[in-house]
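Batch job 17 of 40 flagged for manual review because the log was empty.
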Amino acid sequence: MGARKDIRLQAMVLVAGVVLMAIKFIAWRLTHSNTILSDALESIVNVVAGGFALFSLVLAAKPRDREHPYGHGKVEFISAGLEGGLVVVAGGLIIWRAVVALLTDQHLHGLDTGILLTGSAGALNLIMGLALQRRGRLAHSITMEASGAHLLSDAWSTVAMVVGLVLIRITGLLWLDQLFAILFAVYIIITGLRIFRRSVAGIMDEADLVLAAEVIADLQAARRSQWVDLHNFRMIKYGSVLHIDCHATLPWYWSLERAHAEIAAMERLVNAREDREVELFIHMDPCIPASCSICALADCDHRKAPYAKRIDWTLETVLGNVKHTA
């Protein structure tokens, strides 16, 4: 149900993007302003990126299959990377167009109408961008967050552009049109590079240490004395799905059934506290004599050394692939 809602929202944004692009090009034809043209050119990127974002959401919603055992969520990072790249290209084209215009004569007219049309388009982009970012955060969809960030950058640049057009209208300094176009282009390029950087991080399975710290803190807060140790903790994202694998040390003399029950309890704990689907692969390690010094299990008949201290589970202590000792 959530995936269908995401797809419907992205489809509505795509249709609205086509309408806004037409409005901006009409405004450019009326005014011949390169500042407005820069905004219109970025709208082409909005539409192309929005179309691919819609496709990626449809593909990411497909269930897992034999060829894609972890699902299709990685396509969202590809979508975000494409959008970031297109934004950078659009920024470069805007700068080139502005430099060419500085070297030629330029005449502006119909600025009042242009300001009204582009201002209205910017307001609609602001509304859509906020809606996409909010939904993207709730659904843990980088595709929707990237689309929202792109639309918001477009909206704020439109606000600045309208201010610039008003100054041109008041002062009559036409070169301000090119200056604002270049400034907007630089802002657009920076936004695109940030989106691209995040997509590459997802494709490369870069660790989200903030999220990992939250999950580890949840396990630490609900920790049981029989959960002797936790280490080799790793976490990656497949779209909205969170995949975690780690090693948990349990008493060596427990039956496989009892140990499995404890692992299942850890899985339920994480899933209950996260607002997304979490897949956990927990490898069970038997405790060793060196583990006794950090084991708080009181009724252990196999203890080889007295309990010395507790090792708190934090990013610093659980990421390493080694069992802990006092």
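Reviewer: the log was empty due to a logging misconfiguration, but the result itself is present. The mean pLDDT is 82. Unflagging and moving on to job 18.
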